Inverse folding.
């Protein structure tokens, strides 16, 4: 046993975040940690990584037979524990090798950087795990998936024996997830122990040896992965039976809302990013948009909203009229966008929940430019109720909410603008299963109400479960159309996304909208 | 609930009031005749221009912008008013409007260049600081224009009142500014653009207009302040308002408006103005030299920013 935690209890004031939790980890084991947001996963990780130091909790942690008394995060690194967080800390201007050695640079006479040795160390650790990257490449040129691998390489270069991955795949495309899982399997073979936190149960079952479920700060159960199944894990997480994951009310689609004809779009530098895109979106249906990261999914949505790109060909019609080219008029015309990056594009984190809910529909609660506070408060309260928003007061900053509730606010803001077409970009990224189910129900209700929805999702089961039809993008073009539910298999979709015989894919971060900050 | 508060959270307001009260007590006890008409009169005289420009500056800083040229623009607008009244024999009303227009144009140029061309307003307005000062000297032929009683009425107490028309107008502008920021769609847009421009754009807000209009509004208020400043002295001095921008920014920052945008209160800037003006007048009364005054003012600015960042982290 490389790590053993016994009877951990952590209190914040009167709140018990972790309640008598015991947990252990074997060498060469991948131990998945499941639970909804607020179940205590993060708290447990923070105890194991020294964020909450020894003495601030009850219970005992042993690593390799010796009691662990961490005073800081640095102590954890010295004890061989490395945490790979969702937000990666890198210096984009430095090279891969520089970043791998960051904070532990080899030096000659304690002063001069030993570039040769840095290069060598980086090359060695990259080769060891089959990561095909140039150590001299600038970090900023890499996509998120590669950066994550560098973070792992950095941990391994410091002889970490325990890796803790916190939602490592939340922002990764399918092929990057596969690559990450393959590398984790290699590490397992070398005896590295791994705590793996993910909301995506597919991955958990693909990689984990054991699965522990936390709920409300307490350990519910620990199961060998081979003996568990999805339904039972979800039941333990939620504490109740989930009958249908993807709700669906059968409605006949109405008239065509959005008509996209032979659309080609170039980015700010003039490079074509979307080409020959044609489709029709009807009222009362969900059209799924799939594809690898960088295939142009977010770009397509942003362009339809008038927030990105220069159109080089084609046209977009909303109810027969050309769509406006800027976000203000697009919203007025009845198009709303729910961005994939809710912290950056979706919310004003320091402002109140009410401020955020109102932002796209201030006209409805003002008279001659003067806000009507009572009307605004009443309307927002009603919206919050309809969304099952869990918040004590709408005057609280939205940044204090959990990810799932933040996402509900983003959706609420879009819905208050009374859109006819809703563009959803990864609406359930990084939120827990309970909130996901509510978002699914909301999408279904919008569909039933006659909204036309475009849905981008990297999770194939979600895409298949929610969409009436699916369009797969590949390198900015349409890689496949799926009209019948029977044809929508993960294999077929992935094939359309990657293309026959193609194994090179590009990874880029999503583009910023055209109207950028100062 | 989501009701936008007309008043800022009481805790911050209370702190500012306590600081102001402490300063008044300190100077009242420490110096003879602080509460005499001379000192209070000098505070009351100085305040209208500071209040007007601080109100505009608060709105601009909420959008994440800043304007370093307000001192020079104040000088230029006063010069324009002086030249028109003395050389062209314009009436006070017409000269006042011309001065406001001049300020709005200067603000519009600042705003248009910094927003549309995506240049930092810090640098653009630094350029305007020099340009406006140069124009002020050109307009007046580098000589002070003596206007006399035609303009002094603005700055002298109304018969039977303690305060001047300028003071009343300034308070009115503060009230309107606070209403604008908290109770109008435009005000909401100012905050949204300053706090997170990208999210504002995705929410369907056109992000450029609020930023440009904030510059224009500040310019117009600076124009009005320029005339008030002339009324104090009965003349238009091309050197008027040198260093004025620092007092304004100090007052706004002391009032808790964030330099990074997204947060600010006109009402708290009012208290910031009172604190800065009291401090400056009090130091003079105590016989502090100009250099000491500057050291203290600088320390107050840093302390205000420190207190603000501490509050943010809490």
């Amino acid at each position: 046993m490389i790590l053993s935690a016994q009877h951990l209890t952590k209190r914040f004031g009167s709140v018990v975040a972790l309640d008598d939790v015991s947990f252990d980890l074997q060498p060469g084991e991948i131990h998945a940690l499941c639970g909804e947001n607020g179940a205590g996963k993060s708290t447990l990780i923070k105890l194991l990584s020294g964020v909450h130091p020894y003495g601030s909790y009850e219970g005992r942690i042993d690593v390799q037979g010796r009691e662990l008394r961490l005073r800081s995060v640095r102590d954890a690194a010295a004890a061989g524990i490395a945490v790979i967080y969702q937000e990666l800390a890198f210096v984009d201007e430095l090279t891969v090798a520089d970043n791998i050695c960051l904070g532990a640079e080899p030096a000659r006479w304690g002063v001069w950087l030993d570039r040769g040795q840095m290069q060598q160390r980086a090359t060695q650790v990259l080769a060891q795990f089959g990561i095909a990257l140039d150590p001299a490449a600038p970090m900023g040129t890499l996509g998120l998936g590669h950066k994550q691998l560098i973070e792992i390489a950095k941990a391994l270069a410091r002889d970490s024996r325990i890796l803790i991955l916190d939602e490592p795949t939340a922002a990764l495309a399918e092929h990057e997830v596969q690559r990450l899982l393959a590398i984790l399997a290699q590490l397992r073979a070398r005896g590295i122990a791994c705590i793996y936190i993910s909301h995506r149960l597919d991955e958990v079952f693909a990689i984990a040896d054991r699965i522990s479920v936390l709920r409300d700060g307490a350990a519910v159960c620990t199961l060998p992965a081979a003996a568990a199944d999805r339904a039972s894990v979800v039941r333990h997480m939620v504490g109740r039976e989930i009958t249908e994951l993807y709700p669906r009310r059968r409605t006949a689609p109405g008239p065509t809302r959005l008509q996209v004809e032979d659309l080609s779009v170039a980015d700010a530098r003039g490079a074509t990013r979307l080409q020959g895109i044609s489709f029709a979106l009807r009222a009362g249906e969900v059209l799924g948009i799939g594809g690898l990261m960088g295939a142009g999914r977010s770009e397509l949505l942003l362009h339809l909203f008038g927030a990105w790109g220069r159109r080089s060909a084609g046209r977009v019609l909303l109810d027969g009229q050309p769509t406006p080219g800027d976000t203000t008029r697009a919203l007025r015309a009845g198009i709303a966008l729910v961005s994939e990056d809710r912290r950056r594009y979706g919310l004003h984190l320091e402002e109140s929940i009410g401020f955020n809910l109102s932002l796209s529909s201030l006209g409805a609660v003002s008279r001659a430019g003067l806000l009507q506070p009572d009307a605004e408060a009443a309307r927002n309260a009603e919206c919050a109720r309809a969304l099952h928003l869990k918040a004590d007061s709408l005057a609280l900053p939205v940044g204090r909410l959990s990810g799932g509730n933040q996402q509900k606010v983003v959706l609420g803001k879009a819905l208050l603008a009374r859109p006819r077409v809703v563009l959803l970009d990864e609406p359930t990224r990084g939120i827990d299963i309970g909130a996901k189910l509510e978002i699914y129900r909301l999408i279904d209700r919008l569909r039933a109400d006659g909204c036309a929805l475009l849905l981008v999702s990297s999770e194939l089961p979600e895409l298949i479960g929610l969409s009436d039809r699916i369009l797969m993008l590949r390198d900015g073009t349409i890689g496949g159309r799926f009209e019948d539910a029977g044809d929508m298999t993960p294999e077929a979709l992935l094939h359309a996304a990657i293309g026959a015989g193609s194994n090179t894919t590009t990874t880029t971060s999503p583009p910023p909208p055209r109207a950028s900050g100062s | 609930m989501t009701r936008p508060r007309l008043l800022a959270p009481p805790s911050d307001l209370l702190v500012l009031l306590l600081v102001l009260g402490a300063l008044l007590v300190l100077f009242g006890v420490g110096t003879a005749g602080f509460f005499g008409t001379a000192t209070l009169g000098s505070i009351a005289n100085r305040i209208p221009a500071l209040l007007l420009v601080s109100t505009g500056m608060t709105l601009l800083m909420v959008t994440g912008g800043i304007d370093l040229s307000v001192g020079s623009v104040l000088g230029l607008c006063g010069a324009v008013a002086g030249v028109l009244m003395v050389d062209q024999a314009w009436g006070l009303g017409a000269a006042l409007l011309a001065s406001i227009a001049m300020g709005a144009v200067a603000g519009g140029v600042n705003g248009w260049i910094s927003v549309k061309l995506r240049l930092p307003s810090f640098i653009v307005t630094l350029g305007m600081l020099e340009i406006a000062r140069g124009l002020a000297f050109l307009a007046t032929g580098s000589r002070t224009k003596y206007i006399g009683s035609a303009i002094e009425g603005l700055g002298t107490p109304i018969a039977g009142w303690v305060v001047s028309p300028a003071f009343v107008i300034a308070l009115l502008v503060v009230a309107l500014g606070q209403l604008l920021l908290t109770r109008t769609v435009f005000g909401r847009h100012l905050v949204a653009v300053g706090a997170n421009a990208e999210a504002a754009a995705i929410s369907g807000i056109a992000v450029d207009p609020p930023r440009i209009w904030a510059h224009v509004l500040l310019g117009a208020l600076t124009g009005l302040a320029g005339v008030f400043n002339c009324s104090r002295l009965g003349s238009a001095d091309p050197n008027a308002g040198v260093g004025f921008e620092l007092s304004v920014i100090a007052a706004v920052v002391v009032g808790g408006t964030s330099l990074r945008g997204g947060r600010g209160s006109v009402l708290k800037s009012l208290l910031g103005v009172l604190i800065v003006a009291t401090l400056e007048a009090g130091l003079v009364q105590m016989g502090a030299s100009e250099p000491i005054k500057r050291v203290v003012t600088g320390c107050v600015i840093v302390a205000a920013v420190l207190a603000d960042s501490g509050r943010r982290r809490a």
